[in-house]
Amino acid sequence: MKENQEPTIEQIADLLTDIASSLMSSGSHTKRIIRNVSRIADVLGYDTDITLLQMSVMLTITNAEDRTKRLTTNKKLNPLLLNFTTVSDLSALSWRTHDDKLPFDMIQSEYKRIVSQKRISPWLVMFLVGCANAAFCGLFKGDLPSAGLVFAATIVGFFLRQEMNKRHVNHLVSFTASAFIASLVAGMTYVFQIGTTPQIALAASVLYLIPGVPLINSVLDLIEGHILIGISRLVNAASLIVCIAIGLFTSMLILGLEKL
Amino acid sequence: MNTEMIKLVLLDGALAAVAAVGFAVISNPSRKAIYFSALLAAIGHALRFILIKSGVEISLATFAAASTIGLLSILFARLIHCPAEVFSFPSLLPMIPGMFAYKTILSMIKFMQSTDTIKAQGFMMDFFHNGMTTVFILFALVVGVSLPILFFPNYSFMVTRRYEQKHNR
Questions:
Q1: Is the Cβ–Cβ distance between B101 and B124 less than 8 Å?
Q2: What is the H or E stretch that residue A57 is in?
Q3: What is the Cβ-side half-sphere exposure of residue A193, based on CA atoms within 13 angstroms?
Q4: A83 to chain B nearest CA, in Å?
Q5: For residue B15, which residues of chain A lie inside 8 Å, CB to CB?
Q6: A251 Cβ partners below 8 Å, 6+ apart?
Q7: Tell me, what's the pLDDT at B166?
Q8: Is the distance from CB of B44 to CB of B68 less than 8 angstroms?
Q9: Which of B99, B100, B107, B164 to mutate against chain A (most A CBs within 10 Å)?
């Protein structure tokens, strides 16, 4: 390889921080991120030390042969947008790099391809989430009319949240608002006496908002000893759950509790 | 087990599968992972249903179901070269204690608004009973699914590797 084709330390640090931040905002737990990034860095001939925080990732790379060559970079993270295709593809890429000793250019182009993959269509997601919440209503022994209303409520709430996310509304506000609207729509079971299980419809209508992945990731991080990031994830998930509760609470107050 | 029970279990599994698919697509996994999370959710939830029907306490049953999901997910992860958490997380979600959480909030509001001391005490009891159940079920879910990942760390971190198998054949 010619001298000028050798990647510079800056280029390598940039690529590695990009990979770490993509993994982080796609919803991977900390241990996987550290393992994947170090594995790629090893092949490129660098040692890594990573600090992960809720809003930023900090990474120091040191050349394994010449310890005076080292660089620290710090990158702001994008807001959490779950994408497990990215997580599994980047994880596979790190193993491929390790096993086939991929060159730097190859890793970079593969990374770009992985992060620019298209997501599942938002309309399809909305429909499936509606079905899921209706199925939830069924699991709690709700009857068919309430399941139908839960479907409608979920679609409305999910649409609202998507639109608010597009306009960069604070995520706590958007969670509260969509929980409120969804439970209000589901609460129409009371107002119009649809079905026999209005309670179950109300309870199921907000469940699509539950932040399951951050919650599980936080416990995994806590168990593996990444206490700081584990607690920040936990606080984040807990505040979202409180917001859901506030939304539900408000619509229950409006609907009137005498009937509940 | 009679046919009525089998029917109920199957219905339970099917509903859980639909719920898991809906929650899986939010996190944009690959198509194969979606099928597997539906399958795992059906297995896990049906198992929990059977356990509860045969008299096991709900959080314990949840723990058993969650660890079953965790173990199976590591096996399946090996098959489709995809990290286990990608499909074990969505398949847990149908077991989220939604009704208990709802009842917790409901009893909290009723407690807040009631003027009768005796009734208020009853609501307080409801609040704690439902709240504790919610928290314990959530805890059982999360710990149950992460235990297998902790017990087999190397195994679960190597599922996306293709090289090894190619050369061992």
A1: no
A2: strand A56-63
A3: 0
A4: 5
A5: 135-136, 138-139
A6: A180, A183, A184, A187
A7: 47
A8: yes
A9: B99
Q: Which residue in A has a C-alpha nearest to residue B25's C-alpha?
A: A125
Comparing alpha-carbon positions, the chain B residue that sits nearest to A241 is: B101
Residues 6+ apart with CB under 8 A from A77: A21, A24, A25, A54, A55, A56, A57
| Residue numbers in chain B where pLDDT is lower than 50 | 165-169
CB-based contact A82 B94, cutoff 8 Å: no
Three-point CA angle A23, A28, A30, nearest 5°: 95
Q: Name B138's Cβ contacts closer than 8 Å, sequence gap at least 6.
A: A215, B96, B97
Tell me which of B7, B10, B28, B89 to substitute to probe the interface with A (most A C-beta atoms closer than 10 Å): B28
Question: Is residue A147 within 8 Å of B24, Cβ to Cβ?
Answer: no
Question: DSSP letters along B136-154, please?
Answer: HHHHHHHHHHHHHHHHSHH
Q: What pLDDT, in 10s, does the model give residues A15-27?
A: 999 999 999 989 8
Q: Which pLDDT belongs to residue B155?
A: 67
* Per-domain boundaries in chain B: 3-96+144-168
The residue-averaged pLDDT of A152-173 equals 91
In angstroms, rounded to a whole number, what is the distance separating the alpha carbons of residues B76 and B85? 11
Q: Is B164 exposed, middle or buried (0-12, 13-18, 19+ CB in 10 A)?
A: exposed
With beta carbons less than 8 A apart as the criterion, state whether A61 and A12 touch: yes
Nearest CA in chain A to B106: A249
State the amino acid at position A13 in one-letter form. Answer: A
CA A159 to chain centre: 18
Residue type, A28: S
Find tokens 């809003």 and name the residue: A55
Question: Which residues on chain A are in Cβ contact (under 8 Å) with B146?
Answer: 216, 219-220, 223
Q: How many CB atoms lie within 10 A of CB B150?
A: 14
R_g of chain A computed on alpha carbons: 23
A136 to B94: CB separation less than 8 angstroms, yes or no: yes
User: Which band of pLDDT confidence, cut at 50, 70 and 90, is reported for residue A62?
Assistant: very high
| DSSP notation for A88-100 | HHHHHHHHHHHHH
Q: Which residues pair with A56 in a beta bridge?
A: A76
Give CB contacts under 8 A, 24+ apart, made by B139-143. Answer: B139/B59, B140/B59, B140/B60, B140/B62, B140/B63, B140/B66, B141/A216, B141/B62, B141/B63, B141/B66, B141/B92, B141/B95, B141/B96, B142/A215, B142/A216, B142/A219, B142/B66, B143/A219, B143/B63, B143/B66
| Chain B positions in Cβ-Cβ contact with residue A150 (cut-off 8 Å) | none
